[in-house]
Specification:
239 residues; mainly beta; Immunoglobulin-like; 2 domains; five-stranded mixed β-sheet; globular
Length: 239
């Protein structure tokens, strides 16, 4: 009995063709920390006159604009990795930004361009969604208790969002031209999965500390050294 091989002889050329199953490209995770270069600034709690807004009840007065831990880790910094040659795909389902307990949740959010965002209201009082974009269309709409508004964001952007009814309510929505991004945790750390091998540019943005750049390198085996990217304690002017 003849042995069966994984080769087929092509009569016209005399070449042997191997039939193999394509392997999945190796990818890795980019990890690191965003840290403050300089003294930690003093941050005051939000000023909220509860008597004027009884429907809100007790509101958390934590000021989320600047949160830096004892080791300099910056929370709520946006980390975006630019990967050349990879198709950017919008989220298949809407991404939700909630108004809950008279705060925007989350304070900082990132979506890929082309994604639909739903602005929810989980409170028992009306809210207002007033956006201040750079490139996308602005909206300024009242969202009743339990209601929602939707918007598709097609352009890369940084959008500040406020509630005109409750002046302490504010958040930022980043529209990225990338599928590789993260918002840093309480210690300034981040992890971004699925990065292909190679060197990739990293862009960092924070609502107070401005911008910073870095690089992440993914090796052939998918490994990647953690990076540390510093941001200046000097306040940056927002554009």
């Amino acid at each position: 009995m003849k042995n069966v091989t994984l080769f087929a002889v092509v009569a016209t050329t005399g070449l042997a063709v191997a039939f193999t199953t394509p392997s999945k490209p190796i990818t890795g995770a980019g990890t690191g920390k965003i840290v403050l270069d300089g003294a930690k600034p003093e941050v005051k709690p939000l000023a909220i006159d509860a008597a004027k807004f009884p429907d809100c009840g007790t509101v958390d007065t934590t000021n989320e604009t600047v949160q830096v831990d004892d080791k300099g880790g910056i929370a709520n910094a946006v980390v975006i990795v630019e990967v050349a040659g990879v198709e950017v795909k919008a989220a298949e389902k809407p991404v939700q930004l909630d108004q809950k307990n008279c705060r925007f949740t989350p304070h900082i959010a990132v979506v890929t361009k082309g994604t639909t965002v739903e602005y929810l209201n989980s409170d028992k009082t009306s809210h207002n969604v007033h956006t201040f974009p750079g490139k996308n269309d602005a909206i300024n709409k009242t969202v009743p208790a339990g209601g929602k508004e939707s918007q598709k964001l097609d352009k890369e952007d940084r959008i500040e969002i406020k509630c005109d009814i409750h002046p302490w309510m504010a958040s930022h929505l980043i529209v990225a031209d990338s599928n590789f991004y993260a918002v840093t945790g309480a210690d300034g750390s981040f992890k971004i999965e699925g990065l292909p091998k190679g060197e990739h540019k990293v862009k960092v943005w924070h609502e107070v500390f401005g911008k910073a750049d870095g690089k992440i390198t993914v090796a052939e085996d998918g490994s990647s050294a953690a990076v540390e990217i510093k941001m200046s304690a000097e306040k940056k002017k927002r554009k």
